[in-house]
């Protein structure tokens, strides 16, 4: 199968490297100089400098050529941040099967990926590829499991057949709503867990945040039409545990630094990469309010990110909530 990965960041590069070991794979990036350097050095010096990329991986900065490589019988994988998903979906031909890796709710509209696709590319055969995965570990060929979610059975089966193998296991799901909600909300909850760990609140507090955060995630997902069991899978509990506890998590890192009284501007400058939870937290909360869903942990994170509440005050507010049945 011909595979094109659009987006030469850490995650796009890692997945392209994995795919290139099994299929003719082309990696596209908008920065022609970066793409030329990657082709020459066989490394992504900007995002994965310590990982050698396979000789079989090809590179291009021409979007039309990249899309032509996949064609109607291949697979396009979009590896852009959520902010870039709408624009990229609008440029993909309707007969090109497509999966996106983007996680989050779109700022401004509050839409998930499948809702954006339905709006700008209603005829496109598409879905989402998600799950607990740090790009660096995928690039290093460490064992990873993902889920390909779409209501299109043929596309789901093709995605699994194309990407499953070696160090990567890919499961199928027909619940893209649940998979996308899990991928979006876990970033916000990872910031909360990072704050708690940065304040040295202990392992009890971490477990409570993850568990109650999972409950928030599930409530929102059900309100949007997802199935409850999806949140006990890779894109729900799996991705939440990884992002909330893993040292490679940028969102967790944001929380840790907030607990040290650094400003958000300082933190983002230090990270140098996108931490989706920072940009999607407010949108997650607004979408929840529109659905009548209560998300107190998410609300606390938003208050801290917006500078309306100190981390310690946010924790205190959560602890003072009235007792209730689980």
Automatic annotation (TrEMBL):
InterPro entries hit by this protein: 6-PGluconate_DH-like_C_sf, 6PGD_dom2, G3P_DH_NAD-dep, G3P_DH_NAD-dep_C, G3P_DH_NAD-dep_N, NAD(P)-bd_dom_sf
Catalytic activity field: sn-glycerol 3-phosphate + NADP(+) = dihydroxyacetone phosphate + NADPH + H(+); sn-glycerol 3-phosphate + NAD(+) = dihydroxyacetone phosphate + NADH + H(+)
Gene3D superfamilies reported for this sequence: N-(1-d-carboxylethyl)-l-norvaline Dehydrogenase, domain 2 (1.10.1040.10), NAD(P)-binding Rossmann-like Domain (3.40.50.720)
Pathway, per record: Membrane lipid metabolism; glycerophospholipid metabolism
GO molecular function annotations of the record: glycerol-3-phosphate dehydrogenase [NAD(P)+] activity
Glycerol-3-phosphate dehydrogenase NAD-dependent N-terminal domain ranges (all copies): 2-154
Origin superkingdom: Bacteria
UniProt: sn-glycerol 3-phosphate binding residues: 103, 131, 133, 186, 239, 249-251
PROSITE patterns: NAD_G3PDH (PS00957)
Residues bound to NADPH: 11, 30, 47, 103, 135, 250, 274, 276
One Pfam family of this chain: NAD_Gly3P_dh_N
Domain named Glycerol-3-phosphate dehydrogenase NAD-dependent C-terminal: residues: 175-315
Record's keyword terms, sorted: Cytoplasm, Lipid biosynthesis, Lipid metabolism, NAD, NADP, Nucleotide-binding, Oxidoreductase, Phospholipid biosynthesis, Phospholipid metabolism
EC number: 1.1.1.94
Physiological role: Catalyzes the reduction of the glycolytic intermediate dihydroxyacetone phosphate (DHAP) to sn-glycerol 3-phosphate (G3P), the key precursor for phospholipid synthesis.
Record's protein name: Glycerol-3-phosphate dehydrogenase [NAD(P)+]
Protein source organism: Leptothrix discophora
Gene behind the chain: gpsA
């Amino acid at each position: 199968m011909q595979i094109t990965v659009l987006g030469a960041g850490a995650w796009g590069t890692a997945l392209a490297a994995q795919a290139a070991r099994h299929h003719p794979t082309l990696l596209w990036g908008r920065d022609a100089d970066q793409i030329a350097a990657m082709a020459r050095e066989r490394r992504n010096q900007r995002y994965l400098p310590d990982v050698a990329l396979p000789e079989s991986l090809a590179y291009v900065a021409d979007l039309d050529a990249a899309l032509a490589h996949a064609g109607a019988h291949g697979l396009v994988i979009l590896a852009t941040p959520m902010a870039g998903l709408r624009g990229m979906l609008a440029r993909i031909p309707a007969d090109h099967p497509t999966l996106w890796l983007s996680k989050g709710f779109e700022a401004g509209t509050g839409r998930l990926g499948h809702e954006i696709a339905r709006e700008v590319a209603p005829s496109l055969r598409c879905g989402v590829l998600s799950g607990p995965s740090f790009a660096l570990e995928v690039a290093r060929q460490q064992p990873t499991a993902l889920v390909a979610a779409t209501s299109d059975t043929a596309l789901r089966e093709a995605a699994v057949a194309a990407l499953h193998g070696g160090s990567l296991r890919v499961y199928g799901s027909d619940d893209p709503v649940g998979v996308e909600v899990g991928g979006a909300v876990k970033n916000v909850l990872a910031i909360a867990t990072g704050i708690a760990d940065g304040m040295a609140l202990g392992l009890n507090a971490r477990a409570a945040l993850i568990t109650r955060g999972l409950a928030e995630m599930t409530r929102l997902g059900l309100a949007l039409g997802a199935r409850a069991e999806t949140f006990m899978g890779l894109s729900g509990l799996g991705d939440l545990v990884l992002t909330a506890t893993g040292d490679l998590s940028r969102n967790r890192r944001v929380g840790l630094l907030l607990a040290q009284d650094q400003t958000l501007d300082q933190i983002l400058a230090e990270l140098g990469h996108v931490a989706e939870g920072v940009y999607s937290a407010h949108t997650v909360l607004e979408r929840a309010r529109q659905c009548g869903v209560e998300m107190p942990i998410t609300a606390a994170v938003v208050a801290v990110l917006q500078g309306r509440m100190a981390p310690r005050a946010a924790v205190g507010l959560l602890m003072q909530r009235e007792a209730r049945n689980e």
